[in-house]
Write a structure and sequence with these properties.
The protein contains 8 helices and 4 strands. By secondary structure, it is α+β, with helices and mostly antiparallel strands. It has a single domain, classed as 2-Layer Sandwich (Beta Polymerase, domain 2). The protein starts with a helix and ends in a 6-residue tail after the last helix.
C-alpha cells in the first residue's frame, strides 16, 4: 500500500471500538516526547485525552493528544511544521474550527493519533481535561459512557462525524456536573 492509499484508507476507516489496551498510555508518552522534542517552545503542555486516556474504556484505537499553545495564532503557525513532522490534516475541516486545529497520524491505512492543538488553559482545554478526569474518577459514569459508545458505534459505524456528534449530549452532561477538580 502506498502513502496515498494508506491515507485514504485511514480517512475512510470505520468506527471500530476495541477493548482498553494498557499500552495506550505508553503510545501517548512516546508521541508526547516526539512532539515536545520538535516543538519545545511552542507547546506549553501536552495531555492524553479521549477514551484511550481512561483506563478500562473501550475506544477506537487512536491516541488523542491535546497540545496547549499560547494562542490560535501559534496553532496556525504550527500547520506546516506539523505536516512536515508526520501529520496530515483537512484544510476544509480546520477552516470550520474556531477553537482548535486538528491533525492526524496514520500508518498502514489506520489512524494512530489525533492531535488537537488548542489554547492552553482555555475553555476547550479545561473542558477536555474535566471530561477525562470525571470519567477516570467515576466508574459508574465511565460505564455509562462505554455502553453509549458501543451503541453509537454499531449505529454509526460508517460515519465518524455522526458518531462524534451523538456523544455530545453525554459529554456536555458530564462537563456540566459540579466541580470535578
Amino acid at each position: 500500500m502506498n502513502e496515498a492509499q494508506s491515507l485514504q484508507q485511514a480517512i475512510d476507516e470505520p468506527v471500530r471500538l476495541v477493548e482498553y489496551d494498557p499500552a495506550w498510555p505508553a503510545r501517548f508518552d512516546a508521541e508526547r516526547s516526539r512532539l515536545r522534542e520538535r516543538f519545545p517552545a511552542e507547546l506549553i503542555e501536552v495531555q492524553h485525552i479521549g477514551s484511550t486516556a481512561i483506563p478500562g474504556m473501550p475506544a477506537k484505537p487512536t491516541i488523542d493528544v491535546m497540545a496547549g499553545v499560547a494562542s490560535m495564532a501559534v496553532a496556525d503557525a504550527l500547520f506546516q511544521p506539523l505536516l512536515e513532522h508526520g501529520y496530515v490534516t483537512s484544510m476544509e475541516f480546520n477552516a470550520s474550527l474556531t477553537d482548535r486545529r486538528w491533525f492526524m497520524r496514520h500508518a498502514n491505512g489506520r489512524r494512530t493519533h489525533h492531535l488537537h492543538v488548542v489554547v492552553y488553559d482555555g475553555e476547550l482545554w479545561r473542558q477536555r481535561l474535566a471530561f477525562r478526569d470525571a470519567l477516570r474518577a467515576d466508574p459508574a459514569q465511565a460505564e455509562r459512557y462505554a455502553a453509549l459508545k458501543r451503541e453509537l458505534a454499531s449505529r454509526h459505524g460508517t460515519d465518524r462525524e455522526a458518531y462524534t456528534r451523538a456523544k455530545g449530549e453525554f459529554v456536555r452532561s458530564i462537563i456540566a456536573l459540579p466541580d470535578w477538580s
